[in-house]
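Tutorial handout. Part one gives the primary structure; part two gives the three-dimensional structure as tokens.
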Amino acid sequence: MAENKKSFVLYTDYTELCNSLSDANAGQLIKHIFNYVNDTNPTTDNEAISSAFILIKMQLKRDLVKWKETRGKRSEAGKISA
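Part two.
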């Protein structure tokens, strides 16, 4: 993810996706997500986790782009007001 970024959004839209997984797979998925956002480049041989993660990963990347844009705009606005 991004350096010094301490949070991320996990959308409730993924509830049905998580509920369709076994408890064990859902637990592995959430661990996989946290490893990803903490830049440990997780891998898995579990097809259910891999498939579910693709959708979540795409949204995390879109959110990161939006966050960087917002951060840049706020930085510029701060420079102008100073």
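Part three, for discussion. The radius of gyration is 16 Å. The chain has three helices and no strands.
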